[in-house]
Every structure is written in C-alpha cells, then in structure tokens.
What we know:
By secondary structure, the protein is mostly helical. The chain has two domains: about 5-85, no CATH class; about 110-215, Butyryl-CoA Dehydrogenase, subunit A, domain 3 (Up-down Bundle), CATH 1.20.140.10. About 60% of the residues lie in helices and about 10% in strands. A three-stranded antiparallel sheet has the order 1-3-2. Strands 4-5 form a two-stranded antiparallel ribbon. The two termini are about 25 Å apart.
Amino acid sequence: xxxxxxxxxxxxxxxGSARTDGLVPALALLTRALSPKAPxxxxxxxxxxxxxxxxxxxxxxxxxxxxxxxxxDEPLPGLAVLRPAxxxxxxxxxxxxxxxxxxxxxxxxxxxxxRLREACVAYLAARQAEGTSLLMxxxxxxTLADVLIEHLEIEGVLEELADGPGGDGTLDRxxxxxxxxxxxxxxxxGAHGFxxxxxxxxxxxxxxxxxxYRGEPE
Length: 218
C-alpha cells in the first residue's frame, strides 16, 4: 500500500512540530489529521492523546469517547491515557488505518528524538569538565554521531515506507530503534535527563506511545 501524498505531508508536519514544539502539539496535529472523529486506538483498545482533544471527541459523540475512562495518571502534562470501559468490546483499528497511524507516529517520534538530541547537544555544550566543554569529549562526540546515524537511517526507512509496504514488523523495529536512541541520549544527560524540567518525561511519554500502539511490551 502506497501512502497517499496528503498523509505523507501530515506525517512530515508532525515530525517538524515534534522537533520544534514538543510532543503534545505534534500529537494534536497528527490526531486531527489522521483520526479526526475518534481517538486512535492500539491493538488492546487503549489510546494516548492530548487532553484538549477529549472534549472535541465528546462533542462529536464518538462511540469510543462515550465508553472511555480517563486514567488519573498523566505521562506528560497535557496528555490523557484512555482505556476502554470494556476491553472485550473495544475494537482495534483495521489494518489500513493502523498502518497509517503507526507510520505517522514513527515520524512524530523521530522528530521527538531529534529534539532530544538537540537538547542534549545544547546541555553538554554548556557544561564543562576540567575547563573543556563536555561536548568535546571523544566518547560524547562518538555517541552523538552514532545517534545521528540512527536518525538518518530511520528517516530513510520511513521514506521507503511511503512508497509501499515494508516487511512484517518494519514499523515495530523502527519504534524500538527510536526508543534505543532516546535511551542513549538520556544516559549522556545523566541525572538532568530525569528531572522534572528535563527531557526525560517527554522521552518516557514518547516510549509509552510506541508501546500502546504497538501493543507489545518493550
């Protein structure tokens, strides 16, 4: 299945928004473009979406929105985690829609990982050890170069997917690759990556998105 041109554009817009604006605005953009009438669901019937969209879906009286319960926990400010009131009745998306959504989500998560890489570079450039920027340390430069290569590889595979279906599990492999890149970058940031104001919470929410819509534990 070739991805329609308008869908490709939405996916790339989501990547750019994630990189410049963050996860919640990018997810709102992608959801409005690819699933405007109901929350996009993973194989187990769960959904993660911006809280601002909950009222929009409720106003349209979407069937899923009426059945859903919102969890008390928030993976990131502005995000809501929905679970079906009756998991047995919750319908997973059909194959075509699931593939389109999964592709868009991979583009969005790539943009978030690039945002994390840029934040990592800025943070390390401002930190010094023995009078030298941490960014200039050989190990740090090597790790960042490896992550950049990972990002370019992910982008290349996503571009190929736009022209036709990949092999079974291609999107899942890309999601795991993005998660590994994120975890590598967070290790470079040390404790800063996991502070309330650091990039760790957004990286965690990005990983949660992959897990919910892949439907498999990491």
